[in-house]
Amino acid sequence: MSSDFIHALHVIGVSNQWAVWATLPDVLGRDILDTSKRVARFLQKAHPPMTRTTALEAVARGAGMTSWHRLHSLAQALIDDFNPDVHWPRPDGDDERVMALKSAFPMLARADKDCSPSPEVTNGMSTFAAQLAPAANISVERARDIVAQLNGADTWEQLLRRQPMDSQEPLYRFIVEEGDFARGGRFAPSEACAALIDELDHLREGLVEEDLPDAGRLGEWLKDVTAKRPDFLDGLQVQAEVCLLGYEQRRTRAKAYAHALSQAMGLIPSGFKGQILWAFSENRFLHRLLFGYMRDSIFSGSRKRCISLARKQLRWNPNDEMGVRYFLPVLLASTGQIDSAMRALRKTMEKGGEGDVNAHFTWSLVSFAKVNPGGGIFCMLKALFLFPALRDVVASDSREPLGPIPASQRRVTVVDRWTLIEQYVALTPHLTALEEWMPALLSDPLVLDAERTLQSTFLKREYDPWMKEIDSMAMALARELLPRLSQELPPFELRAAPR
To answer: In degrees rounded to 5, what are phi and psi of residue 5?
Structure first.
C-alpha cells in the first residue's frame, strides 16, 4: 500500500490497523459496512422518524459517498474479491480500490474504552461528525454526540473528559494459559489499566534513583489515582518503591507491599500450580511486590515470611531475573536451616558462573554460618578479588546511600551492592563474630598485597587464566589466614532467628 494510505490512517488515529487492512482488504470492507450500519442505528435512535434507508443514505454521504449503493458496492467488492474462502491464495491488496474508500476512513476512528481519545482519534471523529451533520440535516454538536455514543459516552464533552481511573471495570484479571505449550498464567490489564500504566511510565521516564525522593509530581499523581482506584496494582507497587523511600519507612513500606500483594494474590485462582514468568511484562509488578516485601521483611518482619516469599518467587519464576536465589540461602542459614541453605546454594552456584560475585559472597556467608570459616574465607576472597568495592558493602551503614563505584573497583561483573548489603545485614545479627572476622579479613596485609597484584595484572591477562589465578590465590590465602584468624578472633556461633 502507498504512503498516502498510511498517512490517511495516521491522521485519524488508526494507523495501528494499516497492516491488517493493507493485506486483508476484505476486513476493511467488512469494518466499513459494519460501522456504517451501526452509525445508522444510532442516527435512527436519535431521530425516531428517520427510516433505516434514510439513515443509511445519510451515513454514506457523511462518509463522502454519493449514495449508500456506492459505499456498499465498493466495500462489498473488497469483501467478495479478497474472501479467502473463495480466493486462495489470497490476492495482493489493491491500492486503488482501497483508496477509493478513503473518505470513509474517519468513520473508523475509535476511542479506547474508558479512555479519552488521542488528538489523532479526536481529529478523525470530528471530521466524520462534520461530514455527517449536513448529510443527516442535524447540527454538528448533535453529530458529535452520536459519535460519542458510538464510543460508549453520552455526550461529546463526556467522551473528551473520560479518564481511565473512572472505569467501572476491574483493572486486572488473571489468565491461566492452556494448551501444549502453556507455561502457567499471566495478568491481563484492562484498556483503562493499560492507559494508567502508560501514564505511570511517562511520569517515571528520566527519573534516576537520586531523583526519586523529589519526584513530587509522580507522588501526587499516584496518590490521586490510587485513592480512586485502590486496585491499580502497578501504581501501588511504584508508590511503595518510590514514595516511601528511606530506612525509617521500612515498616510502612512493608505494609504497603502486603496490601497490594493481598489484592494481586486474590486474582490468582486457588490451587494454581503453574508459573508466572517475569518474561511477560504484565507479571512484573507482582515480582517487584514480592521482592520488595521480602527485602523489607528482612528488617521488619519474620524470617518465615521472607523465606516463603523467596520460595514463591523462585517457584513462579525459575529464571529469577530479580536475584532472589542470592537471598534464600542466607535467609535459611539465619534460621538454622543449614542443610536447606546448602541445597538452595548449590542451585544458585549452578545458575551462576565463576564470575558471579553474588554467588561467591552468598556461599561465603553460608559457610561462616555452617561454622566452616575456611570455606567462608576462600569464597569471600574470591568475591573480593572480583569486586574490590565489596569492602564498602561490609563497612556501609545500610541506612545511607551508596556513592558511585570507582572504575578501579569494577572488574568482571556489574554487581547490585544493595543485594550484597542486605544479605550481609540479614545474617549479621544471628552469627556472632561475623562483624569481627570480616574487617580483620579484608584489612589483612596479605589480602591487600594480593589485591594490588591482581589489579596490576587484570588488564594484561586473558580472562580464563586470570580467573584461575584468582582461584589459586584465594585458596592459598585461605589456608594461610585460617589458623591465625582462628587464634586472634572469637569463634563463630549461630544464634538462629525464629522461624
So the answer is: -65, -45
Is 70 exceeded by the pLDDT of residue 212?
no
How many CA atoms within 13 Å lie on the side-chain side of 330?
Answer: 30
What is the residue whose three cell numbers read 564498602?
392
Grid look-up 476493511 returns 28
**Nine-digit cell at 58?**
445519510
Mean pLDDT score of the chain: 87
DSSP letter assigned to residue 472: H
User: Residue 181: which pLDDT band, with cuts at 50, 70 and 90?
Assistant: low
Residue 248: Cβ within 10 Å count: 9
Q: Which residues contact 277 (CB under 8 A, 6 or more apart)?
A: 183, 184, 186, 283, 316, 317, 319
DSSP states along 221-284:
HHHHHHHH-TT-HHHHHHHHHHTT-SGGGHHHHHHHHHHHHHHHHHHSPTT--SB--TTSGGGH
242: confidence class by pLDDT, cuts 50, 70, 90: confident
Instruction: Name 255's Cβ contacts closer than 8 Å, sequence gap at least 6.
Output: none
364 — phi, psi (to 5°)? Answer: -60, -50
Residue 236 contacts residue 226 (beta carbons within 8 Å): yes
CB 216 within 8 A of CB 200: no
For residue 412, is it left (φ>0), alpha (ψ between -120 and 50) or beta?
A: alpha
The maximal CA–CA distance of the chain, rounded, in angstroms, is 103
pLDDT the model gives residue 210: 45
C-alpha cell read off for 471: 582461584
% of the chain with per-residue pLDDT over 70: 87
> How many angstroms separate the Cα of 260 from the Cα of each of 205, 226, 264, 267, 311?
23, 11, 6, 11, 19
